Structures are given as C-alpha cells and as structure tokens.
C-alpha cells in the first residue's frame, strides 16, 4: 500500500491501517459508532484507527474524525482523508489539503473476494453509457478504481453522486476518471496482486 500511495506523489500521501481486533479510537468516535450494527461498528472503529495512524503521520493532533452527512470521514484541520474496509481490515490515506490537491480516494478489495467473485457483472451495472473497458483489464481493479475515484471527486466537492456519474478513461498519463456531471478529472493508480486489489485516486485541480 505504501508503494501505491507513493506512485501518486511521493512523501505527500501517507497510509494507515487498522484491524477489527485492535482499536485506537476516541470517546466521540465510540459515540458515533454506538448506533451501528455490530459488523459495521467494528469496521467503523477500525477505519478510525487507520485514519488516526495516517493523520498522526502528517502531524495532526489526536482528535476525533467526524462523519459528514453523506457518511464520509471528515478530519479536523487542513487535511484530506479516505478510508476503505474489507476482510476485517481497514486502511486510510491522508494528505495535506492545498489549492492544488483537493481530494483523495481509496478502495480496497480483500484477496479472497477479489479472486472468488466475478466483478464483471458488477462493473457492467455501474458503467456509464458507452464506457470502454480495456482488453485484458481485471474487472475487480476497474470497479475498485471507480470506487476510489468517486470518493476523491465527492471529497473535492464534485456533483457526482454514484459510480454511474463517472467514466473511466485511458490515455498517455494512465488511468483516470472523469465526472460526467462536471467534467472534472482525477488520476488513478491501481494494484492487483496476491495481496488483493487497491486503488488510489487523486484530484489536483479545483
């Protein structure tokens, strides 16, 4: 995961992880999780643990990571953050917000689910009209790419509201996604290995 984060922009995006069995959370976060179903509560707390690890690495103080009205994690201070969960683990990436760096997104697919599930029908259901699928590309990686891109774009204030509002595109700079509502573009890096699928997206412009 550190390697895939580094591909986006070395030394500027940091990574944290958490597990359902080992939490580092604050009382306010426990309160936020109190009304969630058992499995979702464990994922939420693991996610806050991962977020705290990443934000601390940026120099952020220990303070609660709140939840926006749409469920997104909202850190205090000049930071952007994204959290993903799968397979009992949670991962987070964080960076300093700037006029050039507006949003980041992370998605993770556990290796067992990536290997055992046919993601092509899922990808077909969330494809925008006439969206191309590159020959030989892993459907799980493309689905994960769209998930990460949606998080990054929404975090940057884009009007995209679902995976249908994103169109993957492939050019000289690699994989990216464009919001069909605003035209805003985010870059994406994906990794598909025996360790599972990971996708990290970044929005650099307003």
Characteristic terms for this protein:
three-stranded antiparallel sheet, 206 residues, five-stranded antiparallel sheet, Ribosomal Protein L22, Chain A, globular, 31% helix, alpha+beta, 10 strands
Explain the overall architecture.
It is a single chain. Helix content is 31%, strand content 30%. The mean pLDDT is 84. The strands form three sheets. It has a five-stranded antiparallel beta sheet. Strands 1-5-4 form a three-stranded antiparallel beta sheet. It is an alpha+beta fold. The chain is built from six helices and ten strands; from the N terminus they run H-E-H-H-E-E-E-E-E-H-H-H-E-E-E-E. The chain folds into two domains: 1-97, Alpha-Beta Complex (Ribosomal Protein L22, Chain A); 99-206, Alpha-Beta Complex (Ribosomal Protein L22, Chain A), CATH 3.90.470.20. A hairpin with a 5-residue loop joins strand 2 and strand 3 (73-74).
């Amino acid at each position: 995961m550190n390697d895939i984060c580094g591909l986006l922009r070395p030394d500027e995006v940091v990574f944290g992880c958490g597990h359902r069995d080992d939490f580092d959370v604050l009382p306010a976060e426990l309160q936020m999780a109190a009304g969630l179903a058992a499995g979702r509560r464990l994922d939420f707390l693991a996610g806050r643990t991962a977020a705290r690890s990443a934000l601390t690495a940026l120099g952020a103080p220990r303070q609660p990571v709140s939840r926006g009205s749409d469920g997104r994690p909202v850190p205090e201070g000049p930071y952007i953050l994204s959290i993903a969960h799968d397979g009992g683990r949670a991962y987070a990436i964080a960076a300093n917000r700037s006029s050039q760096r507006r949003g980041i997104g992370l998605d993770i697919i556990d290796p067992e689910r990536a290997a055992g599930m046919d993601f092509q029908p899922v990808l077909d259901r969330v494809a925008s009209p006439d969206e191309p699928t590159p020959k030989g590309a892993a459907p799980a990686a493309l689905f994960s790419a769209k998930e990460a891109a949606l998080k990054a774009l929404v975090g940057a204030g884009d009007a995209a509201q679902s995976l249908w509002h994103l169109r993957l595109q492939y050019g000289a700079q690699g994989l990216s996604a464009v919001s069909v509502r605003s035209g805003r573009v985010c870059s994406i890096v994906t990794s598909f290995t025996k360790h599972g699928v990971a996708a990290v997206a970044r929005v650099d412009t307003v």
